[in-house]
Amino acid sequence: SDTWEHHKSLGKIKRRGYDLAGVIAVDDTPEKYARSYGNLVRVSPFWGDLTDEELPYLASYLDTLAQVANVRAVEKRGWRSHVDQPAFPAYSSPNYSLKRTDQSLRD
How many whole angstroms separate alpha carbon 100 and alpha carbon 54? Predict the structure, then answer.
């Protein structure tokens, strides 16, 4: 099969003066960050399920990483098992709707 993976580089961020020890990349495809794996937090793909809690759990995990001087030195595989609760609940209410109500958003 013909597959092509785009590798994402953090070089531009580093050239702009950011210390990569404090930079996190979030993606569902680890191959894209093969050169910067220490900066990657891998998440599950989102398939439209409104009860998906990956991002609320990620927000809690990122809060813990904010306390670390060098995020590249932290083992991030299995990160979700280190989070007790999501930062905020998923939108699982049957009353939640994705309908746009603002007229300017419909145009």
Answer: 24
- CA pair distance 73, 6, nearest whole angstrom: 25
With 0-12 CB in 10 A as exposed, 13-18 as middle and 19+ as buried, what is 73? Answer: exposed
Q: What is the value of pTM for the model shown?
A: 0.72
**In this structure, how many other beta carbons lie within 10 angstroms of the beta carbon of residue 8?**
18
Q: What are the pLDDT digits (tens) for 7-23? A: 888 999 999 999 999 99
Given this model, what pLDDT does residue 20 score? 96
Read off the pLDDT band of 6 (50, 70, 90). confident
Count of CA atoms in the C-beta half-sphere (13 A) of 76: 24
